[in-house]
Structure formats: structure tokens, C-alpha cells
Amino acid sequence: MEYTSLGDTGLEVSRLCLGCMNFGTEQPWMVHNREQSHAVIERALDLGINFFDTANVYSGGESEEILGEALAEADRDRSELAVATKVYGPMHEGPNGQGLSRKHVLEQAEASLDRLGLEYVDLYQIHRWDDETPITETLSALDRLVEAGKVRYVGASTMPAWKFAKALYEADVDNDERFVSMQCEYNLVDRHEEANVLPLCADQGIGVLPWSPLAGGFLTGKYDRDEVPADGRAATDDFMAKRFADENWDVLEVVRNLADSKGVSPAQLSLAWLLHKPVVDAPIIGPRTIDHLEDSVGALEVDLTDDEIDRLEAPLTPVWNPAIGDV
Question: What domain range is 13 assigned to?
Fold first, then answer.
């Protein structure tokens, strides 16, 4: 396993982060068997992955519980692990059930720690921007969590660059804890962030953690242009419909051809492209099986030339759509 520093911090994280959204029962395509989930997490640890990402809203807290159970069973040195979770989404009906108010952030931090069975999390992230709460209030609450020793670093996810720049500015002005990372959708067919937040992250030393690095499975090559699935995740995931556009199939054709010529899987090639991006620290992979996990880790061994990267990127021109930041 390879390791890197998260952004400009001294926190060492594996070049691949294990995303835990698939561990739970909220959706039919998730891993409902906890033993299977534990096995994937344990194998990730064996492979050297020390970076794990979840969120309070994933299956209503189930994902955090599963990750916490698996880490407790594995009994690894806590000082070597980097555990991340998020706050924002709805956790109960009625007032104060979601968002980034001081009340919700502080209460949900405690609830996440309870579910994870941990005394602190290494990275606490705002899952989305909250237009109903002043960012200064949110930053103040996050700063308090760091001061209390319950959070080591704070991060953000999925927002327009101007909002993220505002948050960084307000943190500097008020001497609050600054965001050190950004989770954003980024893969070979979803490159809109190249025209949005990625230049800002590069300029400010922000660690980038791409989510959906395989475009919901599209870049694994399991779909065919003439046989778009009518069921399963591809039919129920709102993000999948946009991925069956003609230009994306053109990208996938290049991926398949290049992967064949290099003797690697399309998934490995697609992840390798991300790993070759200087701004990217750790793509968040979401394997549901050990086989998928091991295939993803193989991406670390794939080298790409500048010409091969140009071939992979040629079919698309990144364009930022402001609506994307509000999904």
C-alpha cells in the first residue's frame, strides 16, 4: 500500500480510502450481511488501507455501527487509522433533524462517536453546504469539536467553489479550524469538478477525496451500450442515468481498449487515472466484495503515460453545471 499526506496536513492516509456507504440495509443493492461487511473491512486493513469513510446518514447510522464493529474486531492500533464520517443529512423528522446548525453538528458528532465506538474521529466532514445556517456558526461548532479532542481535522463535500472559498476565508478571519479536505464526484466520465472546485483545492493545499471514482460501476465495464439495465442500482440510482450519455460510452471504449492492451481491468485503469492526478489524495472506493476490493487495490500498480492520459480524457470537455453542487 502507498500512503500520502492529506492535503497540507501531516495526517498519513492510504492512497485508497474504503468508503462504507454500501454497508447497511437502506437500499437493496447494499451489503445486508454484516459478516460480509466486516470481512471486506478486515481485508482492507490487511492490504494496508488505513483510511475509512462513512456518514451518519448512511442507512440511518448502520454504516457507522458496522465500521465500528469491524474495527473493534480487528483490534488494530488506533493511532495508525484515519476514520472519517460526515454530518448534514436528515437523521430524524421534525425540527433540528438535519443541517449544519451548532446544535445539530454537536449532537450528531456525539451520536457518530457512539455508533463508531470511538473517542474521536480523524476527519469530520460537512456532507453538503447548508444555505439555512451561517457558515460561521458551522465553523464555530466544528472548531469546538477539535478543541474538545473529539475531532482531529475537518473537511467538506460537494459544493460550488465560491461557497468553499467563502468557508476557507471565514475560517481564516475568525481563526476557526480550516477545512483540510474536499470530497467531490470525480471520475473519467464526471470531470465537471475540473471546472469548479479542483483548481481551488490545488491552490489552497486541500486534500481531494473523489467519491464515485468508478461512476457507480459504469467504468468497470459491466454495462453495454445496447443493453442499459432496467433494474438494480443502475435503474434506481439518480446519478446513473446521466452516465449512459453517448460521450461517456466513448470514454468507456477507450478505457476498455487501453485496459486490454495493458492487461489490467477497466476498474484498475480508471482508478489509476485518478491516482495519477496530483490534486487527488485518495479515491473513495466502495467494494461490496473482497474480490472487488482486491481488484481496486491493483490500480496502485498501473502506470500511465502522458499520451495514455490524453487518450482517456479526449472524449470529454469538463463543464461545470451549478446545479451539480446542490445534489
Answer: 3-222+279-301
